[in-house]
């Protein structure tokens, strides 16, 4: 134990603070004094904080498009977003896009409510484009046009909402099984739908632990199983083994009319088809083999 660590422990005695033990070899290059900001840097930070504070006030007090300060407020906001965008790191979202070509469409209120394949009674819609997007994904996964249905959601959470709703409608008393590494929306949806949810442990890779899944399934053999699987978990990128899960269901005595599998592809659902090392079509062909009992949703940037 280093002298630095002992002194720190003594200074924290009696406090409620928690701390991590850092080995000496790792501590030496990281324990440094707090460098003092130069006067110029300090004033720059204060100036930026003042501008941000005034901008927030301007935004909250803005009364509409005729406000004289609106252009300045928007311009500063764009500048701020551009600055943050340059150092944006750690979220799986693609920032390399340009929507300028779509600017003429911003003057319209488009409404795509309803089934995109049935059309809409509201003439201001973009359902033709919506179906084209769906066809693109179906072609990517080599699914025939008459073998799928879908719609463009607002994001991964809505995709999970719809998929699990379909599962619950098919099995009103079904139990939802999902790994502890699943997206937080899965557990929120279970509460919203008042479904019994069994959280299954995960392996180090982030994929579901099928040994624990088997034990959970055997404990609830009297009710249908609704399985949420992940094609890329949020924090670890774990991809659940669909074949192993199906084998586990078979081993536990669940026939194909007793389970529903939803594959949450919000992270890697769109990436896997472009990775040559991955047997991309096998995953989907296995899904189709289940005769529609498995759905997948993509969160596309």
TrEMBL record:
Keywords noted in UniProt: Decarboxylase, Lyase, Pyridoxal phosphate
Similarity comment text for this entry: Belongs to the group II decarboxylase family.
Biological-process GO terms, alphabetical: carboxylic acid metabolic process
InterPro entries: Group_II_Decarboxylase, PyrdxlP-dep_de-COase, PyrdxlP-dep_Trfase, PyrdxlP-dep_Trfase_major
Keyword Aminoacyl-tRNA synthetase assigned: no
Organism: Medicago truncatula (Barrel medic)
Cofactor(s) annotated in UniProt: pyridoxal 5'-phosphate
Name of the protein this chain belongs to: Serine decarboxylase
Keyword Lyase applies: yes
Lineage: Eukaryota, Viridiplantae, Streptophyta, Embryophyta, Tracheophyta
MF (Gene Ontology): carboxy-lyase activity; pyridoxal phosphate binding
């Amino acid at each position: 134990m280093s002298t630095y660590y002992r002194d720190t422990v003594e200074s924290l005695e009696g406090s409620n603070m928690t701390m991590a033990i850092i080995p000496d070899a790792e501590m030496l290059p990281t324990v440094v004094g707090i460098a003092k900001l130069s006067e110029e840097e300090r004033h720059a930070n204060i100036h930026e904080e003042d501008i941000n504070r005034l901008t927030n006030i301007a935004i909250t007090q803005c009364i509409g498009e005729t406000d004289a300060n609106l252009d300045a407020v928007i311009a500063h906001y764009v500048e701020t977003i551009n600055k943050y965008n340059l150092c944006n790191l750690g979220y799986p979202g693609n920032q390399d896009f340009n929507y300028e070509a779509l600017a003429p469409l911003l003057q319209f209120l488009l409404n795509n409510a309803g089934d995109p394949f049935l059309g809409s009674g509201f003439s201001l819609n973009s359902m033709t484009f919506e179906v084209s997007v769906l066809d693109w994904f179906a072609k990517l996964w080599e699914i025939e046009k008459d073998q799928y249905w879908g719609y463009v959601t607002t994001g991964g959470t809505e995709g999970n909402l719809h998929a699990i709703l379909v599962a619950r409608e098919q099995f009103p008393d079904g139990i939802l099984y999902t790994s502890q590494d699943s997206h937080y929306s899965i557990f929120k949806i279970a509460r919203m739908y008042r479904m019994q949810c069994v959280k299954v442990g995960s392996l180090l890779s982030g994929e579901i632990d099928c040994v624990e899944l088997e034990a959970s399934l055997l404990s609830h053999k009297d009710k249908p199983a609704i399985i949420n699987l992940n094609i890329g978990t949020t924090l670890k990128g774990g991809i659940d083994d669909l074949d192993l899960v199906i084998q586990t269901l078979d081993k536990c005595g669940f026939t194909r009319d007793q389970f529903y599998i939803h594959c949450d592809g919000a992270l890697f659902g769109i990436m896997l088809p472009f990775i040559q090392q991955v047997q991309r079509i096998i995953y989907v062909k296995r899904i189709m083999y289940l005769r529609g009992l498995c759905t997948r949703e993509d969160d596309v940037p």
